[in-house]
Amino acid sequence: MTRLFKNDYSELADERIIEAIKKHLNEQHKAYGLDEHSENAKGYIRKTFDVPNADIHFLAGGTQTNMVTISYFLKPYEAVIACDTGHINVHETGAVEASGHKIITCKNKDGKIKPEDIEHQMKLHTDEHVVKPKMVYISNSTESGTIYTKKELEDIRRICDTYSLYLFIDGARLGSALTSKACDYTKEFFGNIADIFYIGGTKNGLLIGEALVIKNKELSECFRYHIKNRGAMLAKGFLIGIEFEEAFKDGLYFELAKQSNETSEYIKEELKKANIVFDSDSPTNQQFIILPNEKADKVIKEFGCELWEKREKEKVIRIVTSFSTKKEDCDEIINFIKEL
Amino acid sequence: MTRLFKNDYSELADERIIEAIKKHLNEQHKAYGLDEHSENAKGYIRKTFDVPNADIHFLAGGTQTNMVTISYFLKPYEAVIACDTGHINVHETGAVEASGHKIITCKNKDGKIKPEDIEHQMKLHTDEHVVKPKMVYISNSTESGTIYTKKELEDIRRICDTYSLYLFIDGARLGSALTSKACDYTKEFFGNIADIFYIGGTKNGLLIGEALVIKNKELSECFRYHIKNRGAMLAKGFLIGIEFEEAFKDGLYFELAKQSNETSEYIKEELKKANIVFDSDSPTNQQFIILPNEKADKVIKEFGCELWEKREKEKVIRIVTSFSTKKEDCDEIINFIKEL
Amino acid sequence: MTRLFKNDYSELADERIIEAIKKHLNEQHKAYGLDEHSENAKGYIRKTFDVPNADIHFLAGGTQTNMVTISYFLKPYEAVIACDTGHINVHETGAVEASGHKIITCKNKDGKIKPEDIEHQMKLHTDEHVVKPKMVYISNSTESGTIYTKKELEDIRRICDTYSLYLFIDGARLGSALTSKACDYTKEFFGNIADIFYIGGTKNGLLIGEALVIKNKELSECFRYHIKNRGAMLAKGFLIGIEFEEAFKDGLYFELAKQSNETSEYIKEELKKANIVFDSDSPTNQQFIILPNEKADKVIKEFGCELWEKREKEKVIRIVTSFSTKKEDCDEIINFIKEL
Amino acid sequence: MTRLFKNDYSELADERIIEAIKKHLNEQHKAYGLDEHSENAKGYIRKTFDVPNADIHFLAGGTQTNMVTISYFLKPYEAVIACDTGHINVHETGAVEASGHKIITCKNKDGKIKPEDIEHQMKLHTDEHVVKPKMVYISNSTESGTIYTKKELEDIRRICDTYSLYLFIDGARLGSALTSKACDYTKEFFGNIADIFYIGGTKNGLLIGEALVIKNKELSECFRYHIKNRGAMLAKGFLIGIEFEEAFKDGLYFELAKQSNETSEYIKEELKKANIVFDSDSPTNQQFIILPNEKADKVIKEFGCELWEKREKEKVIRIVTSFSTKKEDCDEIINFIKEL
């Protein structure tokens, strides 16, 4: 069967992850995330991102992590600022609003929010007849496959400090961002720029799970209550603990991300040579190409690519690689497109 | 290390479950629960419980399943009736209330709700100054390890019909209930008594996951929207699909439950012979014994048993067996208690 | 003291309203809106708007009415479509989101939503990964003082019918809309175009209160439960009943609205003669004029006008008349602006 | 027509309240509760209750005040402790739960909560698998017409301090409590015992409105945002401001309460002489008498009394007096009962 390029969560997990699970099959663990493997995983993550004082929690999926986090940090009348293409705004079926909070949107530029737009919103929201913005949500890599530069992150951080806003970074594809050739900062820098960020496992070769990192323990004293209150506490938390232990103990997490980036880069280069037009300049594992309607439909049919945007005579389609994509899979889609 | 009897979710999963997962490691699946394995699993479940028209959804955990279900079926001013010991009332950190709904409680008898108490509540709740009860929640087996009899279920069903109440059965330990020697009904009977029930995987040897069965598709047209809205939709839904496919294709689910029941029964019989007093007469995988404080503490220390109730000079402690408990593990705790 | 033009809710009420209240001072009434005066008021409203089958409820304020209504009609995963300037989107401190629902916004044109934008949103929202739009919210008159034409309302109604959307009209300033010279439809037409609308009392000379009209009783069977559930049921509901009885028994409501429109029209005409530029062409009781910063500030200071928009060298300010504005009050502000 | 004894909110308001409103009919006021009359009223209240640092807000009704307050002070996973008969638990259609919070109930004694029961609940709620109690809710006078003694209030305060719980007192009938002959504390004592309390206007001769008193301004920095967020901010806040200004400027509030207490006391004494049995010993404006079914029904029919409890052959019915009850009204019901 043809290898699909539909998304990065079509397969169970990398083999090493499953083997780690098998290894611990006959152990008895403390439930609810209080086990040793979770502790080990947290230690590795704290070290990787240089956040020795961080509070870390494992959750099952991205929408859940966003919802649980945002509803913990915001009071009922507080809102989160995001760009219009932000995952919480467009692909979570109103989960944030269902938890009671407005999302204030700014027009994105290449999937990113601009500091001046955050500032503009702060100036519009100054009295009790409108919500009180209290958090900025960004994702890295973004929905468009782009990544924030060091300077962009610093500028957003500065605005957040000026207006006492939490900065929360959705890292559903953080691995891809941090191992991108375009990334101009270290993991340690990244780990200290946000107040809260999460490390996506689901989209990076894990069976299930995201690791939420709250930089400062003082911020999250009752976070475990909140996880349970939102139905998000897993009895077998050690499952995710074991996965992240394996993924972070010696860099597997980033190896897997690199694999997805490199195959993506390969596709990009080859298609560029073939004069295919790209909708954005993505240095990560998502590529967005523009094709005439008919050709686009053929690629969608053959490789399961998502239709990203309909234009008059063209379609933007998304090609996603993953931890398990191989060079020969890439050749298939490259050649198919070339020969259209 | 000593085998603990703390709960039935201390281990990852039965080996067959992990092997099933491994078998599908290199496949690409449709995301969000729309894959073939999930479809197969649903087919097996529909057949097992004789619910050909049922709508089935896989969710990650018990509290999540309760919250997502209750908040889907109730309107904002509607409430759920449960007994005081009901899991939703005492062990879910207010998840149901956080979703906006009052739990009306009735005093339990052996962990069960009585039909006359439901009726009494219906007579108390008749105008718009009080909530409108619209659902009855029970668990089977109960928090006390007991199970409902056929007659009890029929009586509750009748009351529910009289007052247009949904009947929702929490089956976190449904396997244990249905394979209990005390169970006087078939799976087919059980499958058709409630409007909604769930089949617990987490507490019965699966890695993760519960299967929610909604008897009648008409009731749940937009349930997938609601799952996503609550942050409960897994991208890799096929993970749980594969598990339930394996568990239901040829009866593994009930084999695992039987194992936990039989070892529990063995402990019960042996301790009875030794004149240990039980707090309830449980025919399932949880036993509640009463010991003088000091002795209780020793058992808790050695076997991790949960302290269930403090009395003046005694403690009630819970002994839980699981799919993986072996006869020799039982002998250890039996002998330890005998020799106290 | 100078008469302010800040808003239309700076004064208690028209004298006739207070006299009606006084008249019933020594009566005992049924509580919670079940009294005779409320019944009479409902009868008058049903007749005025030709909605014989309507269910009518009295609530205390506009934001409350919007929130209670929207959260009654939408399920948790459903959303309301509104234009970006809609009151629920910008001036209610996230009350709709706090009740759990996303507001999908469309760019306004003169404060109005366009049917094609509703349709566009329907085409974007088609699966369970995004909210399900189920209601269109508009206000008449709008936040910009404009009113919908008969054709515009019919076009929106048609889209709503096509996509099974409720149409909800916020009539905080409905009196002003329906008595405007620009209004090309009857009250009877208006009463039957929406599924739900409310008649604003607070901004039209009543002490307190809005009348929510639900065209079809079948839609609102448990609405009283929901009102109480949201903390919005007044023990002394008869207070609002008496007010609306007085306001609708012989047209006082529309008399008061006409007074505000006529004085607004007078200001508009006079200022136009003086070459003052208007930001919109409002046929109701709100006028938006553009003045150089310094002049704007003087008007704001003297007459309490709201600053509507800051531009580089100019400001848009709002002049609002009310049921109690007199021609001589208008002359004051007209002359003041002329002489700036 | 016969004077009813159904409740204390059947009439619009005391004449002085209406006259105060009339007096300010032609003034223009600042909206949203920021007017001078509200300021004056707050000053009088601060002085009356000796709470110079208190933050005070005016809201429309009791259920609304309870819901807005509780949802402001509690985080999502936090709960409020109340006695089973508490108004929030039984007569508010789940408004508190709809705002996301569990009510933990204790069995009442004469409508009151016992300090030891609060402590017991604190010992049951100690980890993240159950809600975190953070507030104690009591009402004074209670639903049974009783009032807390000084010692009882001090004991509850002590427990609240020990466990860092807010103490919130529902004063829907606070006037009646504080002017009761049985009250053994001053207004100044009362004002300083709770963290938050409200002064009921609706049930004490005001047209509408309750005054919420938050003892310490630091606690409520963003309370106005929350009021608006819950749909509870009145544009014409000055209406309630004027009422409370009038009610507190020279003691009218307590005069009205005294009138209801004295007439209640008169009924109590006369009926006791006639050997009528009382269900509780109420020193406030609600009396609960026990009558054989048939006689009870006659009183209910004639005087609109609420049926409080059905027993086998008897009924408990409630007789409520109000600010406007006169001695001759009392004689009517007294004689009627005597002659049954």
Q: For the largest beta sheet of chain A, what order do the strands appear in spatially?
A: 1-7-6-5-4-2-3
Instruction: Extract low-pLDDT stretches of chain A.
Output: none
* Terminal-residue CA separation of chain A: 20 Å
The major β-sheet of chain A equals:
7 strands, mixed
Tags for this model:
homotetramer, 340 residues, alpha/beta, seven-stranded mixed beta sheet, four-stranded antiparallel beta sheet, 17% strand, globular
Task: Please outline the helices and strands.
The structure is a homotetramer of 340-residue chains.
Chain A: H1 15-23, H2 36-48, E1 55-59, H3 62-73, E2 78-83, H4 87-90, H5 95-98, E3 103-106, H6 115-124, E4 132-139, H7 150-162, E5 166-170, H8 174-178, H9 187-193, E6 196-200, E7 210-214, H10 223-229, H11 238-249, H12 252-273, E8 277-278, E9 286-292, H13 293-303, E10 306-310, E11 314-320, H14 327-338
Parallel strand pairs in A: 2-3, 2-4, 4-5, 5-6
Antiparallel strand pairs in A: 1-7, 6-7, 8-9, 9-11, 10-11
Helix pairs in contact in A: 1-11, 2-11, 12-14
3D architecture notes:
The structure is a homotetramer of 340-residue chains. The two termini of chain A are 20 Å apart. A 7-stranded mixed β-sheet of chain A has the order 1-7-6-5-4-2-3, with helices on both faces. Chain A has a 4-stranded antiparallel β-sheet with strand order 8-9-11-10. In chain A, 41% of the residues lie in helices and 17% in strands. The first copy, chain A, is of the alpha/beta class. Chain A is built from 14 helices and 11 strands. The mean pLDDT of chain A is 97. Chains in contact: A-B, A-C, A-D, B-C, B-D, C-D. The interface between C and D is large, with 54 and 54 residues.
